[in-house]
Amino acid sequence: MDMRQTFLSTMDEVLDVDPRVALVMADISAASMDDAKARHPDRVLNVGIREQLLISVAGGLALSGMRPVAHTFSSFLVERPFEQVKLDLGHQGVGAVLVSSGASYDMPFAGRTHQAPGDVALIDTLPGWAIHVPGHPDEARRLLLESLPGDGNVYLRLSAQENAEAHLGTGVQVVKWGNDGVVLAVGPMLDPVLAATEGQNVTVLYTSTIRPFDAGGLRTAVWDSTPNVVLVEPYLAGTSAHVVSAALDDIPHRLRSLGVRRDIEVRTYGEMADHDLAHGLDEASIAIQIKEFLAR
Fold first, then answer.
1. Do the Cβ atoms of 156 and 143 come closer than 8 Å?
2. Are 237 and 258 in contact, with CB atoms under 8 Å apart?
3. Exposure check for the chain: N or C terminus, fewer CB within 10 A?
């Protein structure tokens, strides 16, 4: 199963055992939860294509002591109802688990409306949020299950792009050691980064949790290598540059951020691979950019 199917299957299980959990949807994935809705009609809710209401209902459920999980595509979960995310969750002092599907450009055939490379940057403007970007369905399941018992606000960003193997550790995990620099891959960017750095003498780090950021893990890796840091994220380039810089504020270092381009809007449909190439996130482009950065 892919990440989205794994999420829905896990929610089906959780609804049977945790009466505090409620799932709120805005049509997306609703048909897949028909059986769960038949068993729990008061805790599986479909508000239709009303994304602002999706978040407001989640806020209301949280105020009543429930643990709401709100789900739809990333552009409709974060960008469209951002005011409700800010006010009906954060400002009200209540928490929900927001689970998106679609990532930055998983569905390029659907056009710009279904692309959300700025979702993580938007959520990052709000205080106190945990942000998870799993790179494998098993990581998505674990991060979801770990998010449900609490009361805080969590953003779980699912993608059709995934790594071949799960990395179920916490914080910044060392995948390989090297001496010429440190490359930090976030979520599904790990496999492209490993392919791009094959034969290069660099440390490769991986994380599926970017907020809170594991500053200690990054500092340790930099101390054991060279303070040349390349950050590779599957959304807007530089989204986590400020936390990397804060983590290394007393260490002279260089930082190069790779991710979805900020300078242009890619106005093509095509496939995911076409957008990876346009944003320099394919293996060959990542390899060239890392080599050029380390050679300076």
1. yes
2. yes
3. C
